[in-house]
Task: inverse folding
């Protein structure tokens, strides 16, 4: 398999603040990473595809100014939730594939965000 | 467009018995990949098994096997000899157009 880490695992913040979540591929290089959002007992919803060295591709309905994605290196992508509000509270999880698109995606452990 | 349907919101199985989790899909791609992931209460997504659309043999990984029926567009997961640790949410997913599309998930509960 392959190892993907996420940090932090859990974060609580006040409404109006920004929160940065990191996603790292630990034992492989990932030109593409993916960010998902998941509500309790629900499916994973793809938010955006993070591309190393270029702009992220956002899914329809996802505000790119709200959810800033930066993929500055082959092992790190960051998701910043700007001016967070209680409705942004959710489980955010990233993934990456090792070699080619279509290969198995390996997931990070996820980040639970609670906005008060 | 692609779609994955998991029609079983919840399933129960006795320890040591086998269980089948259903998954049907729809895609216009000729080449695609089907995946099953397990998500325990901790939230991590654990890759279980993969089936390529051109694979003639059903995929197997230990106690997991995939019953792939291409004409019916189904990719059911079979877990043999269920263990208490198998209790989790299970997701079927299809890869296409550069991304994974997930089904609604099935919560499996294994009883002792």
Result:
């Amino acid at each position: 398999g392959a190892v993907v880490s996420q940090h932090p695992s859990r974060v609580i913040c006040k409404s109006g603040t920004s929160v940065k979540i990191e996603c790292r591929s630990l034992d492989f290089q990932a030109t593409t990473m993916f960010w998902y959002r998941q509500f309790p007992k629900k499916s994973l919803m793809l938010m955006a595809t993070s591309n190393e060295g270029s702009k992220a591709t956002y899914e329809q309905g996802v505000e790119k100014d709200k959810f800033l994605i930066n993929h500055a290196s082959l092992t790190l992508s960051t998701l910043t939730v700007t001016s967070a509000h209680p409705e942004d509270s959710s489980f955010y999880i990233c993934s990456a594939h090792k070699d080619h698109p279509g290969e198995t995606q390996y997931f990070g452990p996820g980040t639970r965000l609670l906005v008060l | 467009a692609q779609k994955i349907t998991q029609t079983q919101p919840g399933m129960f199985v006795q320890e040591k018995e086998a269980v089948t989790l259903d998954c049907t899909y729809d895609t216009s791609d000729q080449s695609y990949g089907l995946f099953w992931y397990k998500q325990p209460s901790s939230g991590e997504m654990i890759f279980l098994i993969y089936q390529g659309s051109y694979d003639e043999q059903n995929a197997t990984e230990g106690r997991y096997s995939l019953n792939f029926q291409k004409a019916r567009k189904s990719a059911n997961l079979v877990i043999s000899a269920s263990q208490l640790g198998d209790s989790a949410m299970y997701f079927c997913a299809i890869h296409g157009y550069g991304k994974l599309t997930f089904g609604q998930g099935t919560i499996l509960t294994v009883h002792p």
Summary: The mean pLDDT of chain B is 95. The first strand of chain B starts at residue 3 and ends at 5. Chain B has no helices and twelve strands.
